[in-house]
Amino acid sequence: MLEHIEVFRKKKIRATPQRLGVYKVLCRANKHLTAEQIYGKMKAEFPALSLATVYSILEFLKKSALVQQIRITFDKSCFEARCDQHHHFFCKRCKVIFDIDIPRCSALRKKEVDGFLIEELQGYFYGICRDCKNKVKDGRGD
Ligand SMILES: [Zn+2]
Ligand SMILES: [Zn+2]
Q1: Rounded to 5 degrees, what angle do the CA atoms 44, 48, 54 make?
Q2: How far apart are CA 118 and CA 121, in angstroms?
Q3: Which residues have a beta carbon within 5 Å of ligand 2, which is an ion?
């Protein structure tokens, strides 16, 4: 809890209990969660909290560069506390989002394509994850 407050202090953000709560849930989960999932994990501790508030806190934390939004699925965005630039893989079978390491492409090394300056890149990859692939191979797939 203390280290979370420290992160807020460094960014000069007021650490309200609800803001801290959202950030804590994301740090603890260490994976990609939807606003609904975050809300679900916070309800017990914050009975007065609404889903709309969770959304606006996420928007605020995003602007403060404390959380990152991932739009890998078309229906729902996910959020995570990891803010460095990295790519994502979505498993079409188990619907889980994974972080994947992919070497930087040449366009990114130059940071410019046809005169366009690239400031940010997030790759979204779709397929079958390792676990699901092994299940299919073993004939355990459903
Ligand atoms: Zn999978
Ligand atoms: Zn990620």
Answers
A1: 85
A2: 7
A3: 80, 99
